[in-house]
């Protein structure tokens, strides 16, 4: 069995399920009838679809083999817009900061760990097994990782251990896990409060800036200066949700947006070149980051509480399993539909997204809804 390292420049999506909106400082007028921020669920799916657009039509690499030619030729007009879809990851991280602060507020460390582990692992384990099995089929041309490295992938520690990844998108899970660890140790363990959260955001912002200047690999691994502004900005927006007049919260959001757009431009912009697949502009990158922050802010302020439709909750539930399976299994579907069956590019694109959403629904219905409560209950037991 051959082995390949699958790389991707996207990120991971937020993986949390929203609990009921908290009581306390958040005004009643900013809660939906169900107590759930369903607009945030919808935004999560939008971010996932952005990432899918990037993977299917906004980059080169293995998806070129699936189409038969570069997506640049498959989507001569839209490929340049699809290239911005990778910024769906930054939007995910902002949402993650908001949701993790909400879900960690008032929880014990055991409860927080049980919630995160039970949310991440069941669908992830099945996605790893499914992609490994499909890539092992003789009819599938994509290379699989070795059995040993496939087993390591089940731990979610394959990236720091230097093993090849089964899922290209799971690098964002490693980012999320480090964020969870920082938040758990600094906020959940001592007990969440407004003052403690503000101090955490301020210290992390300063430490991330120092890390950027120091160019120290260990500090970079722990403090994640490239991604920190988005998590911190989401935390600040949760404080805004609790109290829209909180000047410190708005200050956290403003500094996070300013540093976040700079980090995104640094990592995703390059000078225009005929040899480069995507020529994103700095303005376009800043615009997408700004829209991501703005949309979460609008939700935090309660201006989208009218969007209290049940289907948005369903959309949010499909986001994580869709995110896990859409890239690699999408390649297989694209090749069958476009090259084997001759279906046009745009129809193939839409049918592939639809197929991955159906698969995500099956994973949510038969894996997450069954295993997540069992795992959470097992991890929540005190001995």
Describe this structure in words.
- The protein has helices at residues 38-57, 62-67, 71-74, 79-82, 88-104, 109-135, 147-153, 171-188, 194-214, 217-223, 228-242, 247-268, 282-300, 310-340, 345-380.
- It has 383 residues and is mainly alpha-helical.
- Helix 1 (38-57) packs parallel to helix 14 (310-340) and helix 14 (310-340) crosses helix 15.
- It is globular.
- The model is unreliable at 1-29 (pLDDT under 50).
Query: What does the radius of gyration come to?
Result: 20 Å
The average pLDDT value, as a whole number, equals 90
Question: Helix/strand-derived class?
Answer: mainly alpha
Estimate the global geometry from the Cα principal axes: globular
Number of helices in the DSSP assignment: 15
| H/E series | HHHHHHHHHHHHHHH
Query: Oligomeric form of this entry?
Result: single chain
Helix percent reads 55-70%
Low-pLDDT runs of 5+ residues are 1-29
**Biggest sheet statistics:** none
First-last Cα distance: 44 Å
Total strand segments: 0
Strand % is under 5%
């Amino acid at each position: 069995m051959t082995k390949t390292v699958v790389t991707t420049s996207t990120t991971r999506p937020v993986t949390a399920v929203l609990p009921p909106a908290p009581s306390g400082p958040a005004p009643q007028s900013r809660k939906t009838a169900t107590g759930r921020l369903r607009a945030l669920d919808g935004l999560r799916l939008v971010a996932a679809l952005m990432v899918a657009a990037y993977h299917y039509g906004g980059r080169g690499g293995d998806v070129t083999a699936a189409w038969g030619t570069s997506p640049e030729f498959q989507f001569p007009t839209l490929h340049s817009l699809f290239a911005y879809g990778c910024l769906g990851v930054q939007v995910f991280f902002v949402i993650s900061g908001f949701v993790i602060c909400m879900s960690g507020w008032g929880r014990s460390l055991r409860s927080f760990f049980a919630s995160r582990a039970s949310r991440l692992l069941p669908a992830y384990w099945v996605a790893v097994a499914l992609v490994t099995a499909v890539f092992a089929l003789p009819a599938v041309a994509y290379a699989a990782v070795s059995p040993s490295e496939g087993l390591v992938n089940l731990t979610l520690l394959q990236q720091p251990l230097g093993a090849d990844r089964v899922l290209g998108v799971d690098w964002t899970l490693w980012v999320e896990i480090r964020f969870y660890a920082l938040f758990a140790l600094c906020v959940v363990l001592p007990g969440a409060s407004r003052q403690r959260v503000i101090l955490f955001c301020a210290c992390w912002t300063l430490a991330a800036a120092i890390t950027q200047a120091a160019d120290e690999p260990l500090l970079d691994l722990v403090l994640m200066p490239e991604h920190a502004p988005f998590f911190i900005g989401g935390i600040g927006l949760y404080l805004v949700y609790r109290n829209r007049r909180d000047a410190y919260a708005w200050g956290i959001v403003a500094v996070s947006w300013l540093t976040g757009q700079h980090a995104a431009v640094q990592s995703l912009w390059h000078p225009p070149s005929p040899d480069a697949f995507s020529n994103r502009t700095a303005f376009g990158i800043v615009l997408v980051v700004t829209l991501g922050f703005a949309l979460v802010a609008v939700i935090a302020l309660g201006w989208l509480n009218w969007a209290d439709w049940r289907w948005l909750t369903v959309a949010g539930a499909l986001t994580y399993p869709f995110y896990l399976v859409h890239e690699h299994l999408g390649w297989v579907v694209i090749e069958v539909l476009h090259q084997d069956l001759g279906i046009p590019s745009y129809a193939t694109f839409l049918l592939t997204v639809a197929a991955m959403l159906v698969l995500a629904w099956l994973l949510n219905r038969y894996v997450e809804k069954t295993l997540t409560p069992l795992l959470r209950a097992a991890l929540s037991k005190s001995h």
